[in-house]
Give the backbone structure.
Amino acid sequence: MSAKQIWVDADACPKVIKEILFRAANRVGVMLTLVANQPLQVPGSRYIRTVQVAAGFDVADNHIAQQAQAGDLVITADIPLAAEVIANGCLALNPRGDLYTEDNIRQRLNMRDFMDTLRGSGVNTGGPPSLSQADRQAFANQLDRLLARN
């Protein structure tokens, strides 16, 4: 099943990943919607649109969760959002090319909650590493696989 539409949690999505998505949307003719709480610059295309939501915690995530339909692809590094859209029949892919699935999302949520607890107790857990060339390639490859499914 190929994605009917692509939704992007765009506030934290790296620019290079957005550029890969812009090219893919135009190449395969799939609607790409970037949701953010700030204005976004996107290339002119009938396949690319932006939705600006109000500022606030999880406002963009909530918009995506409410609008995405079964079969849509959601691009996000937000694990709770990924879990919610997977439960609604969507596909979820993070900017490093990792596909969230029903089989791995519970473990990801547990690890996220564990790290959140550590940070809350004062442990410096550091952040994720910078997006590498290998991450970009993994994302592009996984995106191509998902868009090529019939």
Notes: The first strand starts at residue 5 and ends at 9.
